[in-house]
Amino acid sequence: MPESQRMRAVQSPIIPIVAEWIRQCPGTISLGQGVVSYGPPPEATARLQGFGASIDDNKYKAVVGIPELVEAFGRKFQQENGILTADGSGSSLVVTAGGNMGFMNAMLAILDPGDEVVIPAPYYFNHEMAVTMASGRVVLAPTDDNDQLVPERIEAALSSRTRAVVTVSPNNPTGAVYTEASLRAVNDLCRRRGLYHIHDEAYEYFVYDGAVHFSPGSIPGASRYTISLFSLSKAYGFASWRIGCMVIPEELLQAVRKIQDTILICAPVVSQLAGVGALQAGKAYCEGHLRTLTGTRSLVLQALAGLADVCTVPRADGAFYFLLRLRSDRSALEIAEQLVRNHGVAVIPGNAFGLEKGCHLRVAYGALQPATVAEGMERLVTGLKKILCL
Ligand SMILES: Cc1ncc(COP(=O)(O)O)c(C=O)c1O
Known about the structure:
The protein is an alpha/beta fold. The protein contains 13 helices and 13 strands.
């Protein structure tokens, strides 16, 4: 029996394809998946002691999250992001099983079939996939040569069917940190045109060289139409624990409750408890690791300088990605496969991020151990030079 037409239209995720190449080539160093090299803080695992002993631990809990975690997120948003979620603020907070789930919840809550969502390109592929899965249509608004937002292009992409504009900063796949001015411009555009502004802040702490993270949900009045998405996956080494959080306009709460109750009922309670411990350790935990990551980033940049003849590397002050623009008209997918098979290093081809023109490769350095950086980058630089000179 065939799958639905809707699902046939959804691109296949690239990560499992690259993972299969890696499996076939043992010893490959992965600059592929966007994960960090560290795990959760001890405060998170300490919360698990004795969990399950009480019968009550094993029951379903509130759809929107356990009160302790809801409160901890609420405090964090107020203190760090300037986003208010208390009663009367106009916003509601929902704990999700990760940032991806928050995005899917948002799509199911706001889209009718054929509605459009404007996404700057290059995009985070799961966002594009989620829009299509929710029977929506993605309309792309390319970013500029520095991978920055162009609000005029976003405005030009709007139609009578547009329901939302999506931004991700710091960005996956480019590592760009969008300027406060451009995020304010997009948020204001959404206000004027009656659209939702969905902003993904999964990498909020991952900024370098003086770049500053900005949360559009903090703009006065923005709570009526702004959906802010957060995740513990990156900052707290929490990818497998599946905890995120969405801040939504109050009027969407009923819809999001229905969706989450049907798909998940509640985020795994054991992970929510660990999440309380993670937020107790707080931003300082990530900042400690960020010092090491900043060193890794410098080494990656130094190595990439050796590729000046074959590619450009746009400025990227955030997340843990660089999106290389290769001076080649060859297929990025083919080059990525050759890099794994012949040079033992994995990167992600740009096609996965909606880049049909040009030849792009995403380099992720978050998971590199200091010992593997030099070797991984050496393989990438040597491999690319060889492949592109053929
Ligand atoms: C922009 C962005 N949002 C969300 C996610 C997924 O986060 P989570 O693990 O919380 O679902 C990722 C993971 O790579 C991401 O890059």
